Amino acid sequence: MGTYSGAALRHPATPSDLLRAGLERDPRGPAVVSARSRLSWEALDELTGRLAAGYLALGLEPGDRIASLMPNRYELIAHYLACFRAGLIATPLNYRYTVAEIDHALDVSEARMLLTHVEREPDLAASERVARLPLGTIGYLEAENGGSAFQGLVERERHGSDPRPMTPEPGAPAVIFFTSGSTGPPKGVTHTHRTLGWMFATAAAALEFGAGDLVLAGSSLSHVGAFYVSFGALSAGAAIAIARTFDGDELLGLLRDDRPTVLSMLPSALFALTRDHGATRHDFASLRLCRAAGDKVSAELEREFTALTGFTIDEAYGLSETGLVSVSPPAAIRIGSVGQAAPGVSLSLRDDAGDVVEVGGEGRAWIRTEAACVGYWGDSTATDAAFADGWLDTGDVMRADPDGYFYFEGRRKQIIVHDGSNISPQEIEDVLEDHPCVDSAGVIGIRDEIHGENVRAYITLREGTERPRDVELIRFARARVGYKAPEEIVVLDEMPCTATGKVDRAGLKRMAEASIHRGRVR
């Protein structure tokens, strides 16, 4: 069997009416909790309505893109819901984005407005694109400090002359996620109201969310993983907990005080939480499920987490283009596997010729699901290259066992995943080659149990130049690409290249693996 399909799904709730289950069951019960705030379903609904009306009153119209550069706050949940309700296209930006990355995302999406935390204002002042936003920026400041434009927006009284939100068409775009490719700048993954509805329904069914759950997504709400987990939970009438940061103090506080039933995290952050000296088995006793996705769960993380908590991690696989793809049934987790095809998802493993591989063989994962995005914003060439006959070619290599459990084997696209963030090797290589001493650069990911992968750069030097200090090169890169900068620099006499003259990253990978076996970095 070469194609594996999950269970059928019921027709999903629409994103613009996502709170209905909770409102009908217990309108005054908790919908969103954080270390500082508690919102009932009716309070969240009221906040969302005010914000939707406020956005339209500012001059935004259905179909307009409104970008957000925000850390995790409960207001960000309300912002997304308000966009769904008003027919606006939410455009989340990674809060770690550099100025150049912010400008790129704003250019591609042609956003008309940006919601941003005021602590990013110094960076935005250096941006050429932010100054040209047709409707400017909305500054967010913690409510207790008062005075922010966002706070004024949600506290304003509604007026009879305010534009009234209209129910968006199912095929209308609802959100644009930016994700890295193997080369070139990030592309805008575009989901409609229809595909989002299916994405949330898939997560809710696969993770078995119900009204008694409190779901803690311990990662950024600007990333698709925390996004679909949180809204999938709300669509099923489950409450969600918002982690403002992802360190032990914040997460352990939520685990101890609010006793969530589901925890969803990136493996790197979960490793840090597991190794936090304050963590005890009792802290995790309320959980019925701990899900991890975004990178491979290492055997060491699995061992340490199980020793601490007494249960296993449910490893999953998902994409910005589709949401959740595979996960083990909570009662039948297989260690090392990313699970079975999620409800509503079909997975096919194929070789380079497009033929289905035999059970146990490795192949590229192709996905078909109603939750698949409609393409890449403004990039029909990239869309046509990724999709064929309703199937998405992920480029990721997997194998399946006879029971339909999948095992992740590697990324064909050579993306580096560091702390859950996708990093394009080409981008770092281009930056390093701008240095006056660097002739060529090749960048790869080095496996790390804490961070998933660390960035290592191999370089050759220009003739007649002296070798710069590693710290100088790292600072040079960090000033241009921020957190993506390499942690290690290795100088080579000659850069390995493919037959077509491109940097042979696979060869560098083999070189790195050989050096590990020899016990030295080279």
Q: Which helices and strands occur, and which strands form pairs?
A:
Blueprint: E1 3-5, H1 20-25, E2 30-33, E3 38-40, H2 41-57, E4 65-69, H3 74-86, E5 89-92, H4 99-109, E6 113-117, H5 121-125, E7 137-140, H6 149-155, E8 173-179, E9 187-192, H7 193-206, E10 214-217, H8 224-235, E11 239-242, H9 248-258, E12 262-265, H10 267-274, E13 289-292, H11 299-309, E14 314-319, E15 323-327, E16 340-341, E17 345-350, E18 363-369, E19 375-376, H12 380-386, E20 387-388, E21 391-400, E22 406-411, E23 416-418, E24 421-423, H13 425-432, E25 438-448, E26 452-461, H14 470-481, E27 488-491, H15 505-518
Parallel strand pairs: 2-11, 4-5, 4-6, 6-7, 10-11, 10-12, 12-13, 13-14, 26-27
Antiparallel strand pairs: 1-17, 2-3, 8-9, 9-19, 14-15, 15-16, 17-18, 18-21, 20-21, 21-22, 23-24, 25-26
Helix pairs in contact: 2-3, 7-8, 10-11, 13-14
Write a structural description.
By secondary structure, the chain is α/β, with parallel strands linked by helices. The chain folds into 2 domains: 3-400, ANL, N-terminal domain (Rossmann fold, 3-Layer(aba) Sandwich); 416-518, ANL, C-terminal domain (GMP Synthetase, Chain A, domain 3), CATH 3.30.300. The chain contains 15 helices and 27 strands. The strands form 6 sheets. A 9-stranded mixed β-sheet has the order 3-2-11-10-12-13-14-15-16. Strands 1, 17, 18, 20, 21 and 22 form a 6-stranded antiparallel β-sheet that branches. The model has no long low-confidence stretch (mean pLDDT 90).
